[in-house]
Amino acid sequence: MFTLSGIVETLLWGVANGCIYILLATGLNIIFGVMKLVNFAHGQLLMIGAYVAFVASTALGLNAYLAILVAMGAVAVIGIGLERFTFRKVLGTDKLNEIFVSLGLIYVFENAAILLWGNDSQRIVSPYESLRLSLGEVAIGYDRIFGVLIVIAILIALFLLMKKTKIGLAMRATSQKSDTSMLMGINIEKVYIFTFALGAALAGVAGALYGIIFPFNPYIGALPTIKAFAIIILGGLGSIPGAVVGGLLYGIAENTAVYFLGGIWQDAIAFALLIAVLVLRPTGLFGEKGE
Amino acid sequence: MVLAIKESIANTFGFVKNEVVGFSRSRMFYYVLAALAIAAVVPLFTSSYVLSEVLTPMVIFTIYASSWNLLASSGQGSLGHAAFLGIGGFASALLVIKLGIPPIIGLFVGSVFSAVIGLLIGLTCVRLKAWFLGMVTFGFSVIAVTIISQFDAVTGGIMGFRTPLIVERGLPFYYLTFVFAVISVFAIHLIMRSKLGLAFRAIHGNELEAKMNGVNTAKYRLIAFVLSTFFAGLAGGLYAQSIQYIQISIFEPYYSFLPLMICVIGGLGTLEGPIIGSVIIVAIDRYLPGIDSALQFLKPLFPNVSFVGPPLRMLFLGLFLIVIVVFAPKGLTAFIRRAYAYFRGKLVTVKEQ
Amino acid sequence: MVNKKVLGLIVVVILVAAVAVAALQMNLFQPAPSAEARPIKIGLVACYNKAEGQDMDRAAKLAVEEINAAGGIYVSEWHTKVPIELVEVNTEDDTPAKAVSPVTQAVTETGVDLLIGGYTSAGTLANQVVAIEHRVPYIITGASSNLVTRRGPQANYGGLPEGDTRRIDDAEGMSYMFHYCTTTGDYSKTVVNFFAEKMKPLLDDEFGFAESRKLRLAILYRDDAFGKGVVSDSKSLIQSNNLPIEVVAERAYPTTATTFQTDLTAVKAAKPDAVYVVDFIANTAEIIKEGQRDVGLNTVYIAVECCEDPQFYTLLGNYGDKQLLESKFAPYAGPPYYLPMITTYVASYQQKYNTLPGMMGADTYDAFYIAKDAIERAGSVDKAKVRDALESTAMDQMLIMTQTGKIQFSTGTNYHEISAVTFIEQLVWNATLGECRSVIVYPETAPVVGTLKQADFVLPEGYQPGST
User: Which of B97, B247, B311 is facing C122, going by the closest CB pair?
Assistant: First the structure.
């Protein structure tokens, strides 16, 4: 029943799915790390990203991969609006308020998407859809390979941004001690806007990639958000390497569970893993200390 | 520390320090009596639809939201409370069907079962931060639905089944849920006024400080968790009976988010918040669809949807929620209190944070 | 002489007839319409925000417009024709928690005379209870589980054992339920018979397999009542009829799943000759695509009839080429169509909505005419009388073919069910349209219609059989 090529393929699916989780989780983690903000509507930004790329590729006739850039920009702008008009108002009050605002945003985004694009599933047609790279018994689609490459490129760019630029430095400073960094002359408001826009842009890219690989509808955002949270808990709060390793682990665990136990265990096993990690190591695999 | 506790009480539990916001205790008593009288008499004059589809859910969701509210007042936010609603519902119905015990006993045993599961989950996660706990509870609701559908042969959860009733639907069932709701809300009120409640609020106000002052925070958080899951299980048992049917859809995130919405709209951390929130949410849910046909004139603006009403309504519900959290973070209850104070001619400024 | 007499007689007859017709036209023989006359309220139970629900809604509106344009339904008790008033009963996502309340409202507040529709089995099993309790005739056009008419207490209402949680003890109430839809048993039968009769001989022929080699079938299904029903019915049919089919893989996935490559990888490892996909539109299309595109499982996929919807064809694109669809209504297999009525229906549907119709709407459309026929024969909107009239329905088949060519609800052990004809379509890529169209490949003939088959079943390009 289980073959070696099957297992190898399963691991490949795990890595490919993990890449989308990585983008989402990294964005969430940056926002959480810098702003200490919990945005449960982050997956809805992914969903909007998929639709923006869809519109760019159908209405404007752009190549699916160019449409990713459009999605990235558009969702970053939406992110700026969100930060400015909703989250800034509740930041620093009760943590529950952030959850409530996110819940409201979930309703707003999902239903706005339904109104604009309808309930039906859509897909972004990639020009490389039917091309597969054959490696003996195992074969993988070009779109998935491109997806992985794009994610690697983005992570490198992100690393450089955090280490080599002024704004990156400011973000790191703010994430460690926002009061002190304010005293040192960092414009916290600016840092927050940039951080949220960056996180949203990553979600936009994740959405466009999602739309190239999978069909999507207005409801696809909910589960990936929860999974992304599980991943950052798994990897450690605020830790970008943690989000990367956590995302890969999560994608692989999920797909291995499907292969050996059947699809119905997919979500349950992944969450069981999360709970186990939390109980054994409450700060996550890479977290240094709790919040 | 004492000061901090007092402040947190004043901020989140207006009903304890009610003088601050314009209610005196004896007045409070009359208002409660009046509210009870209205809730007891109104059903006699409504149609059977309104009774069983509007008033009864309002009462049941009051219990459910109060259970969530109790947990939240100890600083813990559950995002998977539907797990306990569902466990309570399934356990109480299955016990009656499989073991033949009377439905009323089934309801209690089901609630206790929910609390036992709550204890087990709580043991693993009460040490976690508020939204960590939210994640774990959400994860648990996913695991719970998987287990219930995997053991479909025993639970019958996938197709679902008719639930045995304690009393006939309609007026008798309404009064039954009403009595349970009154007892539950009153019990929660007593808990919140006891030493236990003081500890909860201390943890919510400032966990570190509470800890330093010798409060065993983990223990009290666990107690709050178990109590909350008991009442959620009770609400689940009643809810399954009120819709006469139980199926795994009771575990859906919709039911996990429902008590959040109710508490936020009604007023988080107050006794009457869940009541007012339930009335508003159920009323919106049942009566707002009535404007759908009127909204249909907007159809030309949205060529991709055939019915603009439902998504448009939900969109505004989301905006409503955000507006309340941003501009009235203490819910509509605070508005009512302030309006009351205003009409009494002694406008008291409520310290907002 | 004789001729003259005959001629005279004919003239007299014509004159009398003319006068009678004129009198009828002028309502001379008829009493004035009763003061009680009012529009007939028919509730359409559907999830309006799903593709299937939209199709049902469109079909219902088409039927109601047609009937009302012709004056409405004649109710002899009221001596007049009255229009239909369509009541939308939106069950949202059709989970029991959402599906019951709107039906209760329609029955107890709006006061519908009759209900039509229903989508998932779980939702319908929950909301039909309201109709049963209030004795409202309910023509169920969805819900593939036969339990919707077989959950009563007596032998001829199905008869679930005492203590079964799904049983309804109210036999009288159950008699108001009518199932105008195929059941999981119906379509499983067509599918397994197709594999045994058509596909196995073809494979033996093509690849030189021994007669004793069984056809290797994999089943991939959604983990709910519908998926489980199809799987258990298919397996028991294979066993009881001793068909040369071996189920080599059987995998369920949660209803929330959106991607299936890992399940498909496991299915591929089981080396099947064909894959039976039991799900609704979006997931089925995705499974067929991922199977070919990502997993390289080049086999024959067969989808269930609820995928007969324009969205399915759009989503599949050219991945649908040579794949199979079990169905009972084939708007994509023509024109010309196997039933002339489908031509008219497709034309008016396309004209009004600028798209081809789907399967769920076809049952719904028929159901409105069944309701009209029953109310006119009952001569009343009295619910018990309408129920009796529905029981004795004997109309000609409409958009859905039946085994007898007549629409008749069975009585006895299969209470109030129809026996529909289901068939297998093969999708064929049409480059000019940029979408697949279909041809019926099995069975050869159908009662009344005669020849049904439009083309021979062929294996898809690059088809690989399972292990030998």
Answer: B247
